[in-house]
Amino acid sequence: MTNYKLNNLNLSKLKEQVSIPEYNRSNIKTGIVHVGIGGFHRAHQAYYTDELLHDESVKDWGICGVALLDFDTKIYNVLKEQDGLYTLIVKELDGTLTKRVIGSIVEYLFAPENPQAVIEKMASPDVKIISLTITEGGYNYNESTKQFDFNNPLIQYDLENPSSPKTIFGYLTQALKLRKERKLKGLSVQSCDNIQGNGHMTQKMLLSYVAKAEPELVDWINSNVSFPNAMVDRITPATSASDISNLKETSGIDDAWPVVCEPFKQWVIEDNFVAGRPSWEKVGAQFVEDVEPFEKMKLQLLNAGHSVLGIIGALMGYDTIDEVANNEDVNRFLRAYMRQEVAPILNDLTGVDLESYEASLLERFGNIYIKDQIDRICSESSAKFPIFILPTVNAQLKQNGTIKHAALVIAAWAIYSLGVNEAGKTLLIKDAMQSTLQEKALAAKNNPKAFLEIEAIFGVLKDSEPFVKAYTAAYHNIVKNGIEKCVLDTNRN
Ligand code: CS2
Question: Which residues form the Mannitol dehydrogenase N-terminal domain (predicted)?
Answer without folding.
Answer: 31-282
